[in-house]
């Protein structure tokens, strides 16, 4: 039973698939970079990386196994003798796939697969893991809450000051309104007194 043993079948029989991967691996090991469909590139990657692992072993037995799989002695000898040095410091990931879009005609997804150079640094790793990102997010939330609280206190103080000023203004207005009638009454009393004095003088005369 082949439970959980899925691999890229490529829509062909076993013998056809082995011959196809052998030809693709020969071209890749010879030229270092080939253009093919994305499905074939994904099927070629584990095949050729296992051959490169055999080359890193370097034994005669590994060389014969590689020849039986690749089916090209020149490509295998070139890998074991020359190209294996650029993979000595790597523990895997000897190839890289670039997607190129769809092919005109049948709209098949195309890709470029290449062998990675020895001086290739690869992609930069993410500096901050998720835990650090979450902690930084929490630290950013706390100052925001403190700023909101400070703004709320400032608003309350401003409202209190406005209320005090409004109450003082209302008190001043009430005092002014109380003073104005008294001031108006005094001239009227003076006029009445003057009129009374004038009448008394007329009667005496």
Tell me about this structure.
With 205 residues, the chain is mainly alpha-helical. It has five helices and three strands; from the N terminus they run αβαααββα. The protein has helices at residues 14-31, 38-57, 60-70, 73-81, 130-204, and strands spanning 33-37, 95-102, 109-115. It has a three-stranded antiparallel beta sheet. Mean pLDDT is 82; it is low at 181-185.
Briefly, what is this?
With 205 residues, the protein is mostly helical.
Classify the helix fraction into a percent range: 55-70%
* Sequence of secondary-structure elements: HEHHHEEH
Number of strands: 3
Share of residues in strands: 5-15%
Structural class: mainly alpha
Q: Count of DSSP helices?
A: 5
Task: Give the biggest sheet.
Answer: 3 strands, antiparallel
Average pLDDT, rounded to a whole number, is 82
Name the overall outline. Answer: rod-shaped
Major sheet strand order: 1-3-2
Q: Whole-Å distance between the termini?
A: 149 Å
Low-confidence stretches: 181-185
Q: Radius of gyration, rounded?
A: 48 Å
Question: What is the strand and helix layout of this fold?
Answer:
Blueprint: H1 14-31, E1 33-37, H2 38-57, H3 60-70, H4 73-81, E2 95-102, E3 109-115, H5 130-204
Antiparallel strand pairs: 1-3, 2-3
Helix pairs in contact: 1-2, 1-4, 2-3, 3-4
């Amino acid at each position: 039973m082949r439970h959980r043993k899925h691999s890229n079948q490529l829509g062909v029989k076993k013998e056809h698939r082995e011959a196809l991967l052998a030809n693709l691996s020969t071209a890749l090991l010879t030229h270092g970079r080939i253009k093919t469909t994305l499905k074939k590139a994904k099927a070629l990657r584990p095949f050729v990386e296992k051959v490169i692992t055999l080359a890193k072993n370097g034994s005669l037995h590994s060389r014969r196994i590689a020849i039986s799989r690749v089916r090209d002695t020149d490509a295998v000898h070139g890998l074991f003798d020359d190209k294996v040095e650029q993979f000595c410091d790597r523990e895997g990931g000897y190839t890289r796939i670039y997607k190129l879009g769809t092919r005109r005609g049948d709209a098949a997804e195309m890709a470029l697969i290449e062998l990675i150079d020895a001086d290739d640094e690869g992609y930069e790793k993410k500096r901050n893991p998720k835990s650090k990102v979450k902690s930084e997010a929490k630290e950013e939330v706390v100052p925001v809450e403190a700023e909101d609280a400070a703004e709320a206190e400032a608003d309350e103080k401003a409202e209190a000051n406005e209320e005090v000023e409004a109450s003082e203004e209302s008190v001043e207005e009430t005092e002014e309104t109380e003073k104005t009638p008294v001031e108006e009454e005094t001239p009227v009393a003076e006029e009445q007194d003057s009129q009374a004095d004038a009448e008394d003088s007329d009667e005496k005369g």
